Amino acid sequence: xxxxxxxxxxxxxxxxxxxxxxxxxxxxxxxxxxxxxxxxxxxxxxxxxxxxxxxxxxxxxxxxxxxxxxxxxxxxxxxxxxxxxxxxxxxxxxxxxxxxxxxxxxxxxxxxxxxxxxxxxxxxxxxxxxxxxxxxxxxxxxxxxxxxxxxxxxxxxxxxxxxxxxxxxxxxxxxxxxxxxxxxxxxxxxxxxxxxxxxxxxxxxxxxxxxxxxxxxxxxxxxxxxxxxxxxxxxxxxxxxxxxxxxxxxxxxxxxxxxx
Length: 260
Ligand SMILES: NC(=O)c1ccc[n+]([C@@H]2O[C@H](COP(=O)([O-])OP(=O)(O)OC[C@H]3O[C@@H](n4cnc5c(N)ncnc54)[C@H](O)[C@@H]3O)[C@@H](O)[C@H]2O)c1
Hints:
Blueprint: E1 18-21, H1 27-38, E2 42-47, H2 50-56, E3 64-67, H3 73-87, E4 92-95, H4 116-144, E5 147-152, H5 155-159, H6 165-185, E6 190-197, H7 222-233, E7 244-247
Parallel strand pairs: 1-2, 1-4, 2-3, 4-5, 5-6, 6-7
Helix pairs in contact: 1-7, 3-4, 4-6
Bound molecules: nicotinamide-adenine-dinucleotide.
Nicotinamide-adenine-dinucleotide (NAD) binds at residues 22-23, 25-29, 47-48, 69-71, 96-100, 125, 129, 152, 154, 197, 200.
């Protein structure tokens, strides 16, 4: 890889790039696709349902949509081939698809109460789904000696989350995977990073709200996550690899009991 001169680059630059985003119909996935597209990136938005894709991206005609189930390795491989046939290359992969099993928050489950079926489902999407996409896309990035991979982690994977052993374990796996793949791919021109959301509110739930659980004092929204993803996906972020960026208003810094 040739060393580029970082000072000549603007903060966020994309050089005719093509991105694949998984879980694109979700709250964060749609924001990532929109922001990448606004920065001139050609976006392949993928998710489970064709009708949800059509609905989510009807106002973004430049975004192409593909039905892809990340838990199905053959389906992922075939979809990646379709995307390569349509765009000629893949420069950016955002592994965003994820599941969070809805549980009664007032009765959180200890590890002994989590059904193995739920544990397996969370790992099938959040970890194995990421693996399938990496295995399908990495060889093409390696052949081009260029790639930006961004995995969606969670601060639960960094500091734990009582009652959510399945989710925190799967996101810790994603963070560990990120670090190892950064090492394995650094000499191939491919960076691998993680963005870990904290407390993110949806527009339909009233948007950002005051939040004592963060140092900044507010919850975040999907665009806060998208900004970090877009920066790490840019050509300009070439010297950043193997990191996990918490986007959480300082939530993981510890007790939020200082009046300063
Ligand atoms: N929202 C938060 O507060 C928060 C916090 C920490 C981490 N995260 C992570 O950020 C990512 C996005 O979260 P979100 O809040 O937008 O979630 P979301 O539920 O709004 O969207 C997730 C998307 O993934 C898709 N998906 C689920 N299973 C799939 C599969 N097998 N194949 C393909 N797509 C599949 C869903 O259809 C959905 O569109 C996830 O990885 C999540 O774990 C979110």
